[in-house]
Amino acid sequence: MRNNYSRLTATAGLLAAGALVLTACSGTASSDGGGAASDLPESVDLKGQTVASLFTSLNNDYYSSWDQGAQRAVEAFNGEYVAMTNEGDPATQISQFQQQVDAGVKIIFVTAPDPSSVGEMARIANENDVCFANTWESVPWESPFDFGDQYVTYHSNHSYQAAYDTVVSLFDEMGGEGNFVHLTGHPGSTPDTQRTLAVDDALKEYPDITLVDRQPGEWNRDDSRNAMAGIISRSGKDIDGVFGQNDDVAIGALNALTEAGIEDVPITGMDGNEGTMELIQAGDIYGAYSSLPQWSAGFSFVQALDACMSGETPAPLNRQLWSGGIFVTADNVDEYLDTYVGDNDPYDWVKMSRVAYPDDWDPQNKVEVLNMEEMWSWEPQPAGYELPEEYSAALPELDATNAEWDEHWKLLRRD
Question: Where in the cell is it found (predicted)?
């Protein structure tokens, strides 16, 4: 990886028709979180250069939070932030990515609407010396090593573990028995598949929980409301618990249950959006797992930034990472809202950077090495497949790498 810093140039308005674009000039604030640091180290000062974030939509609370964290993080490094949405169309995202590259942008971090666009963006990045970081979606058994050094990092919340812990809490809230409905997300997406596997594994451990129905909620309130209404029509009102694959799905289920006059059904979601937290406060939703969307966006950006500023590709085990989150119920919802949501910005974004703080960088969340064989255990390996050589050679250092991440986590520590 060549040092791209000297080649960073500002975007000059080459934007896709119909795409939502937000730009913000960098500000001046302290490095304690929120805004650009007045004592920003020269090694990571973007000096107004453009950084692009590509994601699905702002008509979704999760991505609104992602956008907020992304902007705050970029501005903390004196960058000019550009956001572009694809409204669920992979081809649009690829076009937007190419246009940002053509405009000279050298740091791009994304979430994809599904895995299909990731490989093409990685190819474009590698051919054009763009530092590319990707969150959530990936084709099974594919990795950054398949595309070159410019695909800096693939990062995902540990969706299987998060969903398993969430649904077990829901089953316990149901008293370990009763009729259960599972509303999924978009079939085929990476987190949807892993969350469904987690629910299935939990069901095996709770024989008195009956899966009444499972329908796709498509990550949004309208589809999930319609799906839940159909389940109620077919199966009746004897429903004791609902697992929504994300927060909007959970809220859609709640809306359908309310319209049918069904009350006091524990519902869980996964995202950690402000509206969901307010429903938890009101007692309408039992709980939701937060993958800390603002943090996820900023962390993804910082991984790409460090690679660009240093000219060095991360160590092999740091190119695929899992992160943690918080399960929120009535017991901790007030603290969560006061710390992580809306105008609250608890993160010291610059402190996340290993380039800015070589000795005392801090991820400010749980981070660990993504285990490829565990991550993709549900999908058979392609014929003749072998784990990437660099990754396999580094596996003896897995425990030490995880320990390093853990030792550096000081701010916002949750034990």
Answer: Cell envelope
| DSSP summary character for residue 171 | H
Domain ranges (residues) in the chain: 5-157+293-325+345-408, 160-290
End-to-end CA distance of the chain: 37
Q: How confident is the model at residue 342 (pLDDT cuts 50, 70, 90)?
A: confident
The CATH architecture of the domain made up of 160-290 is 3-Layer(aba) Sandwich (3.40)
Structure tokens at 237: 């009102």
What fold, for 5-157+293-325+345-408? Rossmann fold (3.40.50)
Cα–Cα distance between 116 and 128 in angstroms, integer? 20
The pairing of beta strand 178-184 with beta strand 241-244: parallel
Residue 391 has pLDDT above 80, yes or no: yes
Q: Is the dihedral of CA 121, 160, 388, 153 positive or negative?
A: positive
pLDDT in tens, 1-58: 755 554 453 333 333 333 444 433 333 333 444 444 448 999 999 999 999 999 999 9
Q: How far is CA 83 from CA 14, 143, 151, 389, in A?
A: 13, 25, 19, 35
- 19's CB contacts (< 8 A; 6+ apart) are 84, 85, 86, 92, 96
Q: What was the pLDDT predicted at 3? A: 59
Q: What are phi and psi of 396, to 5 degrees?
A: -60, -20
**Residues 192, 144: Cα–Cα separation, whole Å:** 21
Token look-up 């490989």 returns 119
SS3 assignment, position 345: coil
**How distant is the alpha carbon of residue 409 from its chain centre?**
19
* Integer Cα distance of 118 and 137 in angstroms: 8
Helix residue ranges, H only, 80-212: 90-102, 118-127, 159-173, 190-205
Q: pTM for the whole thing?
A: 0.90
Instruction: Count CB atoms within 10 A of the CB of residue 282.
Output: 10
